[in-house]
Amino acid sequence: MGVTRSVALALALSPLAALAQSQATHGDDSQAIMQAHAAQDEAERAARWQQLQQAIFGARSLQDGANVVQIAAPEHALDAALVPITLTMKSAMPLKALYLVIDNNPSPLASHFTFGPRADPRILKLRVRVNQYTFIHAVAETTDGKLFVSRQFVKTSGGCSAPVGADDAQALKDVGLMKLHLLGTFSPGKPLQAELMIRHPNFNGMQMDPITRGFTPARFIRTIDASFDGTPVFHLDSDISLSTDPVITFGFVPDRKGTMNLVVRDSDNALFNHSFDVPAG
Amino acid sequence: MRADHRDTLEPSRRHESPEHGAVRVFPLQLSQPKPDAWGRQSGYPAVSTLALLSRRDALMLGLAACSMPAWRSASAQAPRPWPTDEIAPGIHVRHGLDEDVSATNDDAIANTGFIVGREAVAVLDAGGSLNDGRRLRASIRQATQLPIRYVLMSHVHPDHVFGAGAFSADHPVYVGHAGLPRALSLRWEYYRARTEAILGKDSVGAAVMPTMLVHDHGEIDLGGRVVELTAHGLAHTDSDLSGFDRQTGTLIASDLLFVRRVPSLDGSLKGWLRELALLKSVSAKRAVPGHGPTSVKWPAGCRDLERYLEVLLRETRAAIKKGQDIDAAVKTVGLSERARWALFDDYNGHNVIQAFKELEWE
């Protein structure tokens, strides 16, 4: 009985109820009701995106980005606290920046990449937390200021309040440790992909202690700066939506043998600085 | 409403009720077969059906629920005891379903049970909800009137600890791994919200924390019957506790041992293999798995688990070495095990992610 009542009352309080009511009282056609719910959900999601778009991009207009940026994410995420996302930029237009928005996360703007002169912005991979069924939007910004948007729906729940993993104590011990894997063979002037791994719990402060009612203090990565021999590759503003121990794959163009430098700053203002030889020493 | 209403209420009474307020909630339900031990019958509607209630129906149902005499009498009834197997003298085990928590199973999905000494009883995991725990308590009271002095909390997962509150009136010693309080403090609320979204409000109750912590080894004495306790390193979770009943040579493995139901990895893959190797050297006649049959031979009963974990280790390492992405690894690793386990598709991918996260830092 507990379920029936709580679900029913929750529904009664929800704005969906009005629509459900008008449908439900007209017979047993549950298909029609379900379609009505879906339509309502769709309307709510569209409204949510409108709000976010306004908040992030103001009055600037967004164009269909199907041919500019593609999102690959699992339709049903297996682990809400670690949802792998691949962004593929297909446009010949030079790109300035990329925004990743997870609409229904508590802090929706998950990542904002700004590309530097040494970047090869054709691919980005990252791992994020997804808190509930949501659209994920990717917005690519060209150097001349045009915005192109693509989206994908992801089904999962609980990624943000999800318990921190058993190994997070370990992660805190090694916090700031980094690894860089070059994916491919170095050749001067040729684009190369690299996978950056960072030990960081990225605590998002959303796990509540049932006794004290207090929350785990948040501690998460705010910025990452990658540069090759002093020339920027990318700057990333990130937030609590990145998974524990973030792994980011990005492209860059090493014009010669040199050094990839990575500077990570977290919300405690801890600064982690590592350099890697390219090609690996 | 108290959660135990669900337990004793006949399903037919839950649904039909024109005379109690003209609620037509489940037009699909014309006849109701008798429920099984879990209080279920085939064709019981899923929660999503409930979400189709209109506002008016919802309000009326609330009123109807309060005015229905059936509910009042239900709350006065004692919880129905679970069937249990006495797998060794004095050790009774309730078989958990190879399912995930659902509105129809009270989260009674883990093997739970109790062990009876000369002077006292120890609960071997209290189950996945207050109802689950209450029914286990009823099973205990069918078998013995000895005081329930200990409740083991084998690890942090909800299907093993959410029944703990059902024993609070017995004022038992709640026994757990030294890491359990921290693990529970980080996870209880999250698990509670998720479980109560399915089972209903108050199906879990207030958080219960262990009052006796085991650091490496410990023991409890039930009167001429000592149960040895071992707190394990990072394995299935970060708070795994096992028990060993000297008198019958029975290993209480809990979720360090999965049989038939696919293991779920939430601690460390390498750690689990390490702890399993240690457990194999325990000279037990039998073991009680956390999921699967109520008793298996030991150590033969851990062969499948060990093989699964080794496959996961080998194939995840190979995927990382090949430079495969985590999402590609999820689709390939462990598939040779697919036909051997219940719920494989629900957990294997998640296990691969956990393994990948752990092994990519090697």
Helix-strand blueprint:
The complex is a heterodimer of chains A (281) and B (362).
Chain A: H1 2-13, H2 16-24, H3 30-57, E1 62-64, E2 69-72, E3 83-89, E4 95-102, E5 109-115, E6 119-128, E7 134-142, E8 147-154, H4 168-173, E9 178-183, E10 192-198, E11 221-228, E12 231-238, E13 247-252, E14 258-266, E15 271-278
Parallel strand pairs in A: 1-8
Antiparallel strand pairs in A: 2-3, 3-6, 4-5, 4-7, 5-12, 6-13, 7-8, 9-10, 10-13, 11-12, 11-14, 14-15
Helix pairs in contact in A: 2-3
Chain B: H1 5-8, H2 11-15, H3 47-50, H4 55-67, H5 69-76, E1 85-88, E2 91-94, E3 112-116, E4 121-124, H6 130-143, E5 148-153, H7 158-161, E6 173-177, H8 180-199, E7 212-214, E8 217-221, E9 226-231, E10 241-245, E11 250-258, H9 269-280, E12 286-291, E13 296-297, H10 303-321, H11 326-332, H12 344-359
Strand order of the largest sheet of chain B: 1-2-3-4-5-6-7
Largest interface, C-beta within 8 A: A-B, 54 and 66 residues
CATH class of the largest domain in chain B: Alpha Beta
Count of individual helical segments of chain A: 4
Mean pLDDT of chain A: 85
Q: Hey, roughly how much beta strand do the residues of chain A contain?
A: 35-45%
CATH fold naming of the largest domain in chain B = Metallo-beta-lactamase, Chain A
Report the biggest beta sheet of chain B as strand number plus sense, adding barrel if it closes: 7 strands, mixed
Gross morphology of chain A is globular
User: How are the strands of the largest sheet of chain A arranged?
Assistant: 1-8-7-4-5-12-11-14-15
The total of beta strands of chain B comes to: 13
The global form of chain B is globular
| Largest beta-sheet details of chain A | 9 strands, mixed
Euclidean distance between termini CA atoms of chain A: 65 Å
CATH top level of the largest domain in chain A?
Mainly Beta
What radius of gyration of chain B results from the CA coordinates? 22 Å
Helix proportion of residues of chain B, in percent? 25-40%
SS element count, helices of chain B: 12
The percent range for helix content of chain A is: 10-25%
